[in-house]
TrEMBL record:
GO terms for molecular function: oxidoreductase activity. It is found in: Mitochondrion. InterPro entries: 17-beta-HSD3-like, NAD(P)-bd_dom_sf, Sc_DH/Rdtase_CS, SDR_fam. GO terms for cellular component: mitochondrion. This is Inactive hydroxysteroid dehydrogenase-like protein 1 isoform X2. It comes from Papilio xuthus (Asian swallowtail butterfly). Keywords: Mitochondrion, NADP, Oxidoreductase. Coiled coil: none annotated.
Length: 317
């Protein structure tokens, strides 16, 4: 009898794991098939969420390309980042390319609490329909906790934890009043396990996932769509410690390719990597037990660390 009980528990656990792993793919497929069966259903991001979107960390990499993709779909875009000159350049580029309105807000999220009063003031008259919490901070290279400068540790916390918390709070209040809106929180595949040599970064991403899933439930009854976006490696400056990652490849898309796929999933899938090849990788990573993922993460980051110092030495000569 005990054997059959344990076997039944094992079957149930396996089914739950498979459903959890493939659900985002089913959700995405269903969303693409809906227009064929429900042709009158409105798919426009503007009509579903509103005409204004804001993207944090929008002067480089995924943030910049994500803002461009939203503009191509006709949304006006608020660009939020710390470099005023870059913000102006990206705004001009978007307005020329897509003939939409833009607004720039200069904010250095590493400064912590002091930046949000200014952002709130700047956004008070903007009926924000979509907020993309993209801004993020990464290690300069893989390092043990005590090697990580205290200032960098605080920057990781202020940017990766503080920004997503306070910006979500700021945007959700208005969305709840209007009864619609979309919140996209950009996480990372590093959420899947503790990550040696990038311990603080991975821990911040676990926080982002937890926060996102919780506020999704809190605001579901208010008509607000909350997406957990969890990419793996992308060829951006965030991964400058590895020349291999910066060069990119089939499994490491450039920011433009990634953003095009990710925006296509907006409003369609609640939990996604945003890129189909990352989705396959994510599935197989989850299959391995956590202790194995931690060991693999340690080995991977040791290799990236070695690559970084070899690159530094070669540039010095």
């Amino acid at each position: 009898m005990l054997f059959f009980i344990l076997a039944a528990i094992g079957v149930v656990c396996t089914i739950c794991f498979i459903m959890d792993s493939v659900w985002s793919s089913v959700e995405l497929l269903t969303s693409y098939l809906k227009p064929f069966f429900l042709p009158l259903e409105e798919q426009s991001l503007i009509k579903r969420f509103g005409s204004w979107a804001a993207v944090t960390g929008s002067t480089d990499g995924v943030g910049r390309e994500y803002a461009r993709e939203l503009a191509r779909r006709g949304l006006n875009v608020v660009l939020i980042s710390r470099n005023q000159d870059k913000l102006r350049n990206v705004a001009a580029e978007i307005e020329k390319e897509s003939a939409v309105k833009t607004k720039i807000i200069v904010a250095d999220f590493s400064k912590g609490a002091e930046v949000y009063r200014h952002i709130e003031e700047e956004l008070k008259d903007v009926p924000l329909g979509i907020l993309v919490n993209n801004v993020g901070c990464q290690y300069e290279y893989p390092a043990r906790l005590c090697e990580l400068p205290a200032a960098k540790a605080w920057e990781l916390i202020n940017v990766n934890v503080g920004a997503v918390t306070m910006m979500s709070r700021l945007a959700l209040s208005g969305m709840a009043v209007r009864g619609r809106g979309a919140l996209v929180n950009v996480c990372s595949g590093s959420e899947l396990q503790p990550l040696p040599l990038m311990a603080v970064y991975a821990a911040t991403k676990v926080y982002v996932r937890s926060l996102t899933l919780a506020i999704r439930e809190e605001y579901a009854s208010h008509g607000i769509y909350v997406q957990h976006l969890s990419p793996l490696f992308i060829a951006t400056k965030m991964n400058a410690f590895s020349p291999r990652l910066e060069r990119g490849g089939l499994l490491v898309p450039d920011a433009s390719t990634y953003a095009r796929h990710a925006v296509a999933a907006l409003g369609r899938v609640h939990d996604t990597t945003g890129y189909w090849l990352h989705g396959i990788q994510y599935f197989f990573i989850k299959v391995a037990p956590e202790w194995m993922r931690i060991k693999i993460g340690m080995y991977m980051n040791q290799d990236f660390r070695k690559e970084h110092f070899e690159s530094v030495r070669s540039k010095a000569h």
